[in-house]
Write a structure and sequence with these properties.
Elements (H helix, E strand, L loop, with lengths): L2 H12 L1 H5 L1 H10 L4 H11 L3 E5 L5 H8 L4 E6 L2 H14 L3 E5 L12 E7 L9 H11 E12 L25 E3 L9 E3 L3 H10 L2 E9 L22 E8 L1
Parallel strand pairs: 1-2, 1-4, 2-3, 4-5
Antiparallel strand pairs: 5-9, 6-7, 8-9
Helix pairs in contact: 3-5, 3-6
Bound molecules: S-adenosylmethionine.
């Protein structure tokens, strides 16, 4: 099996969690909210917006986007299991969210069909070709529309999870182009890496204007049950937010 197939299969297997947790997700979706920085940046853009959510995963954020004023959300993910779990929940709650299976960066969706692309929280690390991803996001957005990303900071793969002391892992480099994931979704999945500068230059190079870029100390995801890592104690970057406008 190729690296790519291993990763894809790992995600489809990991997405069975969304099926098992259907009842909890139904309850969570009713009150699910975005992070404060996401709400602050997106609230003014969401009224009546057609939102595209690439790599939508469990899709719980989509319910928050609708409550904040989006007209509709289209989630796209290559895991059929994730797509059907998210669609089942949206149908049962009667919200205007639709989910499709597609392997990004090629979405197969029409040009200029979205007012906002909302993505991240563990999405970009699965894109082997970030230039192709940025070009596709540009193609899918109408002129003047926005790209929003809330993502793990590119330094995150370097942080060890020791609870006592923040430490850089010996086996990782900020300038590496990939590493093998040893947490979720499964051992063996290959995560791609870019530096913060490469991410920003890729977005600019695709024809976006940068409106906002910020680094945050709080990770967007923590493994369940483990003691918090010292790297999450507020002194190191663990997430970033980026808002850009399509030319
Ligand atoms: C961390 S998860 C979900 C992120 C999502 N924002 C969320 O909060 O649930 C990453 C998702 O990306 C999907 N994915 C990974 N590579 C993909 C690709 N090339 N095309 C489409 N989906 C992909 C996986 O199936 C998974 O559902």
């Amino acid at each position: 099996m190729t690296t790519h197939e291993t990763t894809r299969q790992a995600w489809d297997e990991a997405s069975a969690k969304h099926v098992r947790e259907h009842r909890e997700h139904l309850e969570q979706a009713r009150t699910w909210s975005l992070l404060p920085i996401e709400e602050e940046l997106l609230r003014p853009l969401l009224h009546g917006a057609k939102v595209l959510h690439p790599q939508s995963g469990h899709g719980l954020d989509d319910h928050a986007l609708i409550r904040l004023g989006a007209r509709s959300v289209l989630g796209v993910d290559y895991s059929p299991t994730a797509v059907s779990a998210a669609q089942r929940r949206a149908d049962e709650l009667d919200v205007p969210c639709r989910y499709e299976v597609a392997e990004l960066p090629e979405s197969g969706l029409p040009c200029e069909s979205a007012d906002l692309v909302y993505t991240g929280k563990g999405a970009l690390i699965w894109m082997a070709d970030l230039d192709a991803w940025a070009a596709e996001m540009h193609r899918l957005l109408r002129p003047g529309a926005h790209l929003f990303v809330y993502e793990a900071h590119p330094l995150v793969p370097l942080w060890a999870w020791d609870p006592e002391e923040a430490r850089v892992r010996e086996d990782r480099s900020y300038f590496a182009t990939s590493h093998v994931n040893d947490t979720f979704p499964a051992r063996g999945a290959t995560e791609h890496q870019v530096t913060l500068a490469q991410l920003v230059m890729t977005v600019l190079g695709a024809g976006f204007e940068l409106l906002h870029l910020a680094e945050h100390p709080e990770p967007f995801w923590r493994p369940e049950g483990d003691e918090p890592a010292a790297a999450w104690d507020g002194r190191l970057p663990n997430a970033l937010s980026l808002l850009a406008r399509r030319s």
